[in-house]
Amino acid sequence: MTTTKTADVDGTLAQVYALAGAGADIVRITCNEVEAAQGLAEIVPRSPVPIIADIHYQYRLALAAIEAGVQGLRLNPGNIRKEDQIKAVAREAKDRGLPIRVGVNAGSLDKDLMEKYGSAVPEALVESAQMEIRYLEEVDFEDIKISVKHSNVPLMVESYRLLADTVDYPLHLGVTEAGPPPAGLIKSVAGIATLLNEGIGDTIRFSLTADPVEEAKAGRQLLEFLGLRERKGLDLIACPSCGRAEVDVIEVATNAQKALEEANLPIQVAVMGCVVNGPGEAREADIGIAAGKGRGHLFIKGQVVRVVPEDEMVEALLDEAQKLVDEGVEARLAQADANAEEIAAAERRQLIEIQGDANRAADRRNAVAEVATQD
Ligand code: SF4
User: Fold this and answer.
1) Are 340 and 347 in contact (CB under 8 A)?
2) Would the CB of 274 count as within 6 Å of ligand 1?
3) pLDDT at 110 (0 to 100)
4) Which of 1.10.1660.10, 3.40.50.150, 3.30.413.10, 3.50.50.60 is the CATH number of 235-355?
């Protein structure tokens, strides 16, 4: 959702483009005044993604947003409560083939329901949605999506579970007012991922107190990490580091992430703190680098292709990652330094001798042999 004044057409459009670039498939924009609706009339035709108008209190602004050409509406049943007004909007939306999201929010729940239930419990949120759905269905409007957002993660999860058991419409997931990252991110992931893994939910939004581009990026990444969306961006995996690390893994991983994100490469990259365990543990990554004694081992699909000086690790990783994306795995493996694997193996042996074998392979082999040969 944009954070600009909607009347600021150029500012809002710039944010819409930034959100779309970060992975947003649809963008919601507030329509809270006449000037906002007028702004939408200019924004919608120039937007790269569908625009949803966010409507509170004034049903006439919903009609104005429809007139402005938006591709959908979000109505808050907690503060647009008159049946005839809701039906007027639904009739107009139906005529234009537009969907409506019934956007229930625990923080702005219908007053009567608050009195009935005492607080914004899941039953209250779902009943609010059901009342609105009834009005819409009474005028044959069924192009409906529903959300029952709560800022409390367990209550949010329970509300959506109850809703999914009660209705058959698509659901939009979100933890409302999640707050700034990192806590806001953790709350959002906890709620949204739990439900997505249960097969509940059709669209998502992270509601963070942060630049909205962070919201879009986080949402896209969550879907990519859950395997629900094709990866379009970088997936950087890095070891947590330990006493074996030969470099400052946090610094190398941070620098690598920055450089690779700027290059916008859609691959999985590993940054590992030592060559003893790193390449093996990260063999599934498209490309990676592991730190040796003063040198980095650059590997593709677990095979070391170059050994580079430590201070060139990030640069070499970026260079090879770009070539990998341009030329493909087989072409880059064919270009591997002929003696890279040999040098890497010698360095690994050297480090094991210095540091000891963390897996204690020799001890384990002896112990196994002892057990196997006992009378
Ligand atoms: S890759 Fe090496 S440095 Fe990183 S956690 Fe594993 S053993 Fe430790």
Assistant:
1) no
2) yes
3) 86
4) 3.30.413.10
